[in-house]
Design goal:
Shape of chain A: elongated
Distance between the termini of chain B: 24 Å
Largest sheet of chain B: none
Number of domains of chain B: 1
Order of helices and strands of chain A: EEEHEEHEHHHEHEHEEHEHEEHEH
CATH superfamily of the largest domain in chain A: P-loop containing nucleotide triphosphate hydrolases
Number of helices of chain B: 11
Distance between the termini of chain A: 37 Å
Largest interface: A-B, 30 and 21 residues
Largest sheet of chain A: 6 strands, mixed
Radius of gyration of chain A: 22 Å
CATH topology of the largest domain in chain A: Rossmann fold
CATH class of the largest domain in chain A: Alpha Beta
Number of strands of chain B: 0
Order of helices and strands of chain B: HHHHHHHHHHH
CATH architecture of the largest domain in chain A: 3-Layer(aba) Sandwich
Structural class of chain A: alpha/beta
Number of domains of chain A: 2
Shape of chain B: elongated
Oligomer: heterodimer
Number of helices of chain A: 11
């Protein structure tokens, strides 16, 4: 059964020349949820989001946004959704307030008032020319424009990129409260921790495909079982990884995966309690580590150790 | 309504073009008495270039009307209008792409058809309006040198001139819809215009020049017959509508 007012996409494909940016993405997202799309650069996140708001036409596949079929130039879809682009290019000669009004041309009048309230809350100066805005301020202006209209779907491409921690939290809070009003928020990010905090669902992209679709609870379990061990040099890290592979590589009761990345060795334990592993690791003949972290999982670790993606 | 820099620049360019055109017209009309006295001598000077010699023969025979039509339309409007068409047309869409603002230009819930037609129309008005406005002042300026011209046929010449310039603008606009950098488009268009102007002066190839569609002979025909040339007008209309259609088709699918 299709969600009548959420996002439903089937086999979306988009190719740019010889490059297949998106290779058959299918999604079904209900209203009232915040969903995060994660992935490294070039994984197809932004192209997928641009396709969902009608800015880029899919080569094949179909999509329905808030009950509106994606077709033509996507104007109908953009009437029921908003989009905050990831790439920031604004008209620097306009003042913040004027630019906001320009971005909201074609929207009902109430949208501008709400967006203005958001810019006020975020502390953006409406009378200052946009060229004098910092990168983060420009990002917030686009975010405010996307949050103003009363539409059921909001698509936000890296809404917190370039923001300081306090502003990042404010933006995430606004997203969470907006979803509480029954809207669907689809956002992309490079930061696992921040999307974990606000998203009820995480979709992982790689090479234009979805490689995992998980809940933050699943990820928390993975994080608990992740051990990162740091070394002084890459050679030491490689030696240690080789030793661990030799000693524990075949013991699936102890570790599930093992990967080395420059100065770090990452491993996913098979059990929640790390003590058994730590005891075995202590007895190992390997270079002495400079750092050992348990329970923290970065997006890169996740891709390398869990999804087995190389070359990140 | 707040205008973006590209729109504002293009309006300023249009205003500049209007003033330059009027200035050239004023100078040309006020110079008419001197010119009339020396037409014979000028014809002798131009005799090594047959195309120019023919032009001076026409000027000698038809008097002030040929002079004004050649000065205002063939020289002024063609030179400045073609430059304006190249600069305004090239920046229309490629300018947004070059600045990286094409994405925000497209992400509002306004159809691409409407966005494109609004932008196209704005440029077309900026190119055609100065032709009409300056032509309106011709009778007033001629009164200063005790000459007269029929207003109706003069405005028909302005219509023809505008169609010629808008056709060129439509071609440049189409290239702008496809491109990402306005400068090479403008440069290419200007080179094309200069090339056509230069071959106009060469007798053996003058018939290949684009400016055969809007030269003194054409404007004299319009002025004397009081009607637009059907073939030329049809060519302009076909080029303009064809380019708009192609621009719309390309813009509908354009990736920001």
């Amino acid at each position: 059964m299709h969600p009548p007012n959420g996002i439903q996409a089937t086999s979306l494909v988009r190719t740019f020349g010889q490059v297949r940016a998106v290779g058959g993405i299918s999604l079904e997202i209900p209203l009232g949820t915040v969903t995060g799309i994660l992935g490294p650069n070039g994984s197809g996140k932004s192209t997928t989001l641009r396709m969902l708001c009608g800015l880029v036409r899919p080569d094949s596949g179909t999509a329905n946004i808030a009950g509106v079929r994606l077709s033509g130039d996507g104007t109908a879809v953009r009437k029921v959704s908003t989009f905050a682009p990831g790439e920031i290019a604004l008209y620097g000669e306009m003042r913040g307030g004027e630019h906001l009004a320009w971005l909201l041309r074609g929207r009902p009048p109430g949208a501008l008032a709400k967006s203005r309230a958001i810019t006020q809350k975020l502390g953006l100066p409406p009378d200052k020319k946009v060229h004098a805005y910092s990168h983060g301020m420009k990002r917030q202006l686009l975010f405010a424009a996307a949050m103003g209209p009363d539409v059921p779907v909001r698509i936000l491409d890296e809404p917190t990129e370039g923001l300081d921690p306090a502003k990042r939290q404010e933006v995430l809070d606004l997203i969470a409260s907006d979803a509480d009003e029954g809207r669907l928020i689809l956002l992309s990010s490079h930061h696992l921790s921040e999307v974990q905090a606000v998203c009820g669902r995480l979709i992982f992209f790689h090479a234009g495909k979805i490689i995992a679709d998980e809940s933050p609870a699943d990820l928390a379990t993975r994080a608990r079982r992740t051990v990162r061990i740091g070394y002084e040099t890459p050679a030491e890290a490689k030696l240690a990884c080789a030793a661990m592979e030799r000693e524990f590589g075949t013991d699936e009761r102890l570790i599930l995966s093992l990967a080395v990345n420059a100065l770090e060795v990452s491993t996913t334990l098979a059990i929640d309690d790390p003590r058994t592993f730590l005891a075995a690791f202590g007895a190992l003949e390997a270079p002495r580590p400079r750092m050992l972290a348990i329970g923290s999982l970065s997006l890169t670790d996740l891709y390398r150790t869990v999804y087995g993606v190389s070359g990140l | 309504m707040k205008l973006t820099r590209s729109v504002r620049n293009s309006i300023f360019m249009g205003i500049g073009y209007l003033f330059a055109l009027e200035l050239m017209l004023v100078a040309a009309v006020l110079f008419w008495p001197n010119f009339a006295e020396n037409t014979g001598a000028l014809k002798i000077l131009a005799s090594p270039i047959p195309v120019l010699k023919d032009m001076f023969s026409q000027l000698e025979a038809k008097g002030v009307s040929a002079y004004v039509l050649s000065q205002h339309f063939f020289k002024g409007c063609n030179v400045l209008g073609c430059a304006a068409a190249a600069l305004i047309g090239s920046a229309a869409i490629a300018g947004e792409a070059h600045r990286g603002t094409l994405e925000i230009f497209l992400l509002r819930p306004i159809s691409r058809r409407r966005l494109l037609l609004e932008r196209w129309l704005l440029g077309a008005v900026q190119i055609a309006l100065p032709v009409f406005l300056t032509t309106l002042t011709v009778p007033l300026l001629l009164a200063r040198v005790d000459e007269v011209m029929d207003f109706g046929p003069l405005m028909l010449c302005a219509v023809h001139q505008s169609l010629f310039l808008v056709a060129l603008y439509a071609i440049v606009f189409l290239l702008s819809t496809m491109g990402r950098a306005p400068l090479p488009i403008a440069f290419g268009a200007l080179v094309f215009v200069i090339f056509n102007f230069s071959i106009y002066m060469v007798k053996t190839v003058t018939h290949w020049s684009l400016f055969r569609l809007a030269d003194m002979e054409t404007f004299l025909d319009i002025y004397e017959s009081g009607a637009l040339p059907v073939t030329f007008t049809a060519i302009f209309v076909v080029v303009i509508s064809g380019c708009i259609w192609a621009s719309l088709a390309i813009f509908e699918r354009r990736v920001p």
